[in-house]
């Protein structure tokens, strides 16, 4: 799910990751998880009209609402299922809608792509009468995941790209809550922590490509990281250190849902 305002790539991607290149198989690996979707739906409440900013392929859009999707990447817009509305080609920092046009607003795994976080969040607040829901990761917690032992530059990149939670709440204003979102062991949305109990999945190049932070690491570095993980899985060293996670039903990691109401 991508957003940005300047320097847009050929397919319209405008963040620091080119989704025209890395997003081809995104919808195959990044399928919305129903338990995370339920948390987003609760945050939106009974909103009838919802704007989804940085909408990507449409993950987590509430089925019972009239959704207006905004997505600058042509590659991501093309992956939206036929039953979802066509996304508007626009960016968070300049939303082409009137003040108070929507009951609620949402953005999922997108704010770290925006060129101007404050401007994008102000725009979401401007066009929204009710709650604004932001699904993101807390950069202070990203490095606590076991993958940091294997791919430190990948998680350093994630921690650098995700904005601080307090910066988001301050920009949104109003009454805000920050809710940790447990990641299920069989999570269908393949971000890095989704594989906390299934480390073998991160040996799949497609799974890694669907996590944009991997695209910031040189190919030979990523290969060294995955080779080390593969060796530890083959030898049993990973299970000696982390095997208990395989039986853990969920992980409370860096995933958070921020909700702000006027």
UniProtKB/TrEMBL annotation:
Residues 53-129 form the Methyltransferase type domain. Gene3D superfamilies: Vaccinia Virus protein VP39 (3.40.50.150). SUPFAM superfamilies: S-adenosyl-L-methionine-dependent methyltransferases. Pfam families: Methyltransf_11 (PF08241). This is Methyltransferase type 11 domain-containing protein. It comes from Streptomyces olivoverticillatus. GO terms for molecular function: S-adenosylmethionine-dependent methyltransferase activity.
